[in-house]
Write a structure and sequence with these properties.
about 80% helix, mainly alpha, about 90 residues
Amino acid sequence: MNRTVHKFCAWSGTLCLALMVVGFILFAGFIPARSASQSAQQTAQFLLENRDMIKWGLIVSMFGASLLPRRCRSICGASKAATRRWL
């Protein structure tokens, strides 16, 4: 793996976290969670009123989640290289 690809893989974890935060908090509004004292009708009303933003928030979050395997690949590659040096 060349250095540019390795840097992208290393930073993809941070990018994944940032996109998940943007998707869940800013777009979808899932955090903070709805109050437990709200009725089912109030919760349904929130979901209906914010349907489009929730969809966009989940799309952004899914894109962020797709970056996670690249981060794992970077960690596995670094671990394999480190193990090879000690054998």
